[in-house]
Write a structure and sequence with these properties.
The chain has 5 helices and 8 strands, in the order H-E-E-E-H-H-E-E-E-E-H-E-H. The strands form 3 sheets. It has a 4-stranded antiparallel β-sheet, sandwiched between helices. Strands 2-3 form a two-stranded antiparallel sheet. The protein has a two-stranded antiparallel sheet with strand order 6-7. The chain is 28% helix and 23% strand. A hairpin with a 2-residue loop joins strand 2 and strand 3. Helix 2 packs antiparallel against helix 4. By secondary structure, the protein is α+β, with helices and mostly antiparallel strands. The N and C termini lie far apart (38 Å). The longest helix has 21 residues. It is globular and about 40 Å long. It has a single domain, classed as Alpha-Beta Plaits (2-Layer Sandwich).
Length: 191
Amino acid sequence: MKYDPEIHHRRSIRFSGYDYSQPGAYYVTVCTHEKRHLFGEIIESEMKLSGCGEVVRRVWEGLTRRYPAVQTDSFVVMPNHIHAIIVVNDVGAIHKLPSGEFKRAVHEPPVRGRMLLPTVIGYFKMQTAKRINEMRDTPGAPVWQRNYYEHIVRNEDELGKIRQYIATNRLRWSSDPENAGQDGISCKSNP
């Protein structure tokens, strides 16, 4: 099929002109492909992770080892999405690695491919999709929606409200009309 800008154009959800490599906190939501319930289920207001949900949790927890210039803050895996706060530190600062070594993050110009937030989210989506597809024996199947939602956290008050929203998200699950009638997809309980 030939490129048609009316059909194939993707509108960017990024804040125009914003340098996503600069320090700051970002609230991120990433949804599964077709909002399929892949990561577990909510039982009595508690999230019970499937094997796929465990993969998502483990990859998320490992992000700071791969990207020492980021910190993960609040995080929740829901049946068909995640909510998280990522803090991008000063890319010129010295960061202590889990091994006890120190590493200076290299400052590079804010070129799209070097912007830390999209790089981290891209890596997260790629690694989780690869591992989930290996578990399900579905090579190349889409796991995530093509894009993700992000919001620049502007102050401490807003940060507190977003943390609270993430922590209580599972409590609102059953009353959210977007979640009604969704079927889960089998995913091994032990990854």
